[in-house]
Amino acid sequence: MNQLLKPNTNSAKEEGGNVSPVNRRSFLRAAGIATSLGTIALTTACNDDDDPNPTNPSGDTVDLGSGDVGVLNYAYALEQLEAAFYSQVITTPYAGMTDAEKIILTDIRDHEIIHRDFFKAALGDKAIKGLTPNFASIDFTKKDAVLGAAKLFEDTGVAAYNGAGKLLKDGGNLLLAGKIVSVEARHAAVIRDLIKPKSADFAGDDIIDANGMDKAVSPADILAAVKGFVKETINGANVGK
Amino acid sequence: MDIFKIIDDFQKADGDTVGRLEYATRRHFMSKMSSKVALAAVPTMFASIVNKAFGQSAAAVDVLNYALTLEYLEDEFYKAGLAAANLIPASDRTIFTQIGKHETQHVAFLVKALGTKAIAKPSFDFQYGGAFGDVFSNYKTFVTVSSALEDTGVRAYKGQAGALLADPQILEYALQVHSVEARHAAVVRRLAATVTGNAAMKGWITGKEGAVPAIYAGEENMTQGGKDLKNLASKSDAAITEAFDEPLTKQQVLAIAGPFIKA
Questions:
Q1: Which of A143, B10, B191, B213 registers the highest number of CB atoms within 10 A of its CB?
Q2: Which whole number is the average pLDDT over A211-222?
Q3: How far is A233 from chain B (nearest CA, A)?
Q4: Residue A212 and residue B103: Cβ atoms within 8 Å?
Q5: Which of B7, B10, B3 is nearest to B50 (CA)?
């Protein structure tokens, strides 16, 4: 990981300096995933280096919109990713998935599908379209890869909701986000406990700071961190504004 | 006092850091600072925000003292549990040590943030008037009470979010604590399921399922944002209730926590 974090002048040159190594390093740090799950995110970031059109592989841009609608669409986008990920996990279980693991992962899949469909219904004609996930960097046959990606998605979801709360203007929407973020935090804790049972990792020092606080990350940094998992380019510039 | 002014002051004070991060934004600097450089400074900054809030929002101070009461309760509970001989099995000590550490940190943060406005620590009756008489000698009771405290904490913070709409930075801190309580709740619920032999109890809350049923009233809610979610995505009622955690009002929480508080 440290190797990947080193500035790569070639890639910066290829991309016309638009994505400088410093910026990439900064967003990974800000998203709180450089230390916890950097492998996956950094693999994705490095894939971009070889992509002839790194900013927009499919030529499609999705605008999340502004104000509370923008925040809800932002949540809807993340829930779409999570729902698609866990659906794939259950459709093609990794080698050696135990019954207990399958129950947990199926539960989480159902929660994410419910979140996704709830946001779609709540947003009505303001909802963004269905996104096209890109999980090419995840080896769904391997337990470590799947649970590692699950940890990344859950921790990122928690940080995203925590960072988005203050962008909401409507108390009802804020309460809804609050009802969902704690479920994402439960997922994160359980996934982390599956990876390292009975350890402190469920709320580990890698993710919780010395004030006992989880992360709160802005939409811009979250969208940068997850962009490798979506074919479309997501524009969140006006979320909450 | 403006938070970005404070951050600017830190940036001026730490030229090397600024040099290393010349392209980074204030947010990134703050992230770095809070994780590595100036942990002690964050409560000080927070105190400034709260002091500002005194003039703007007495509601925020009320919420923070309410949170502090619950954090005092949790902190004392885990200190007593971890100190009790032959209570927590070695296999589970790491989990409760980590939880206890966070509760101590939450107390310290809130006390420093509130300054002279912080309430004094109450004295507690963890036996809950006798209902949990063996809480520090019977692990089953200890885990039961722990899961109840954590789930109630999650519900309590959630119920106050709306009161902090006018104080965005305090709202964010509250959310950052809220999700940590949820992480605690999930792992303790799984322990409780094993220790009490209740296979229906998962890390998430199915219907009103929990070790102390009385505190889960309302968790079975199926209506979100004014929409009845029954049959949404062809999922079960159980899954729909699990997917959303429900808040408690301050009155509801004090009714639950009141018997723990002696004075």
A1: B191
A2: 98
A3: 23
A4: yes
A5: B3
Q: Output the CA angle B256-B258-B263, nearest 5 degrees.
A: 165
B207 touches chain A (CB under 8 A): no
Residue type, B128: Y
**Residues whose CB is less than 8 angstroms from the CB of residue B130 and which lie 6 or more positions away in sequence, other chains included:** none
Residues of A in contact with B178 (CB under 8 A): 178, 181-182, 185
| pLDDT band of A49, cuts 50, 70, 90 | very low
Residue B229, pLDDT > 90, answer yes
Q: Test A200 with B98 for CB contact under 8 angstroms.
A: yes
Is ipTM strictly over 0.90? no
Per the DSSP assignment, residues forming a β-bridge with A67 are A239
Q: For residue A30, give the nearest of B28, B181, B203 by CB distance.
A: B28
In chain B, where the domains are located? 58-260
Question: What is the rounded average pLDDT of the residues A214-226?
Answer: 98
Å from A137 to nearest chain B CA? 27
What pLDDT shows up at residue B59? Answer: 87
Task: Check if the beta carbon of residue A90 is closer than 8 Å to that of residue A107.
Answer: no
Say how far apart CA A185 and CA A203 lie, in whole Å.
9
Q: Which of A53-62, A115-124, B38-47, B142-151 has the lowest mean pLDDT?
A: B38-47
Task: Give A53→chain B minimum CA distance, Å.
Answer: 24
Tell the residue number behind the tokens 């296999």, with chain if given.
Answer: B91
Confidence (pLDDT) at A84:
98
Q: Mean per-residue pLDDT for B69-73?
A: 98
Mutate to test the interface with B, among A87, A123, A186 (most CBs of B within 10 A): A186
Q: Please say if the pLDDT value at position A34 is more than 90.
A: no
What mean pLDDT is predicted for residues B60-77?
Answer: 96
Nearest neighbour of A29 by CB, restricted to B31, B165, B236: B31
Q: A30 and B91: CB-CB below 8 Å?
A: no
Alpha helices in B14-57 (DSSP H): 15-20, 26-32, 41-56
Tell me the CATH number of domain B58-260, given options 1.10.3720, 1.20.58, 1.20.1260, 3.40.50. Answer: 1.20.1260
The answer to whether A165 contacts B35, with C-beta atoms less than 8 Å apart, is no
How distant is the Cα of B139 from the closest Cα of chain A, in angstroms? 16
B235 to chain A, any CB pair closer than 8 A? The answer is yes
> Hey, is B112 helix, strand or coil?
helix
